Predict the 3D structure of the following.
Amino acid sequence: VSTGGVTDQILEAMTSPVAVVTSRSDGNLNGMTAAWMCQVSYSPVMIAVSIAPERYTHELIIAGKVFAVNLLSEDQAHLGRHFGFGTGRGNDRFSGIDHNACETGAPILNDCYGYIDCKLVSTFNAGDHTLFIGEVLKISFDERKRPLIFNTKDFF
Ligand SMILES: Cc1cc2nc3c(=O)[nH]c(=O)nc-3n(C[C@H](O)[C@H](O)[C@H](O)COP(=O)(O)O)c2cc1C
């Protein structure tokens, strides 16, 4: 199956939020924008994120075995663009962006819609991406905000 045209249109019906997936290993922190993610288990609660092997964040998740999904709010598409192009390798993407850490030490962006802090429990190859499954350790969200839902025209 090739993507493009009608295939892209159909896949867009599989809506997803826009998040900044962060990780840490030793003293190194990074975050990148991701839209390919979903819940995969209820008890315990687990989520999956799909990350390409060439991403610096991929390297940190493998090494640190933790990640956090920072769900952006509808007025934060600019953060999605900030973390969504180029790479954080050798470049501090958090400079000037308020963040802290929670259970796992993966960066939590302040003022997001919410976050899901996870420990890595499984890793699967998925074509040109890797599926990371995380067990959720902590969740928080701001019920006054609304999540940003991925729409191609906001980013590409
Ligand atoms: C809206 C949007 C969604 C994205 N979703 C994904 C995704 O689900 N998985 C992925 O591997 N890359 C995704 N990317 C690309 C990465 O965010 C981008 O390559 C990033 O700069 C990698 O940073 P890093 O090398 O510092 O980890 C997305 C980019 C944008 C703008």
Summary: The chain has a mean pLDDT of 96. The chain is about 15% helix and 40% strand. The pocket of flavin mononucleotide is lined by residues 18, 30, 32-36, 50-52, 55-57, 80, 84-89, 129, 150, 155 (CB under 6 Å).
